[in-house]
Specification:
It is built from two helices and seven strands. By secondary structure, it is an alpha+beta fold. It is elongated.
Length: about 140
């Protein structure tokens, strides 16, 4: 029954488009499951070099034990949870909660040689490319 009720709780009667939009957005965000569970998406950079891929994720305020990295079938997944104690009063802008970021990579990467370092709030993952097979000329006898 929860999803059958309208998502906004106040009538729009201000005749001010920006105020009405703000009211709708506020009420809509209150009912989103992600807003209640504390979900966020840290910034992620993906760079391709001649010999490797470099993935960098900004996740300050976490310890390296709280970060999980999985690589399965060409998909790199970085996940974790950032938790901070907060009082009922105050103004808070830093995101908390769980996150998962996934990146699909080509099959030409060496999954066994992936390296990860976490320093100054930035997770850096280096994924080397596999050496391509060298072209071989076969002589006919």
């Amino acid at each position: 029954m929860r999803y059958m009720t309208p998502f906004f709780t106040r009538p729009l009667a201000t005749h001010d488009l920006f105020a009405d939009f703000g009211t709708l957005l506020k009420d809509f965000n209150q009912d989103l499951p992600v807003a209640k569970h504390g979900w966020f998406a840290p910034a992620l950079d993906l760079e391709e070099k001649a010999d490797k891929f470099i993935v960098q994720v900004d996740i300050p305020g976490m310890s390296k034990e709280d970060i999980k990295i999985d690589f399965h079938e060409g998909v790199l997944a970085v996940s974790g949870e950032r938790v901070h104690e907060r009082s009922d009063k105050g103004h808070f802008e830093r995101s908390i909660g769980t996150f998962t970021r996934k990146v699909s990579l080509p099959s030409s990467v060496n999954e066994e040689a992936v390296e990860a370092k976490y320093e100054n709030g930035v997770l850096r993952i280096e994924i080397p490319k596999q050496e391509k097979e060298k072209k071989r000329t076969i002589t006919v006898s």
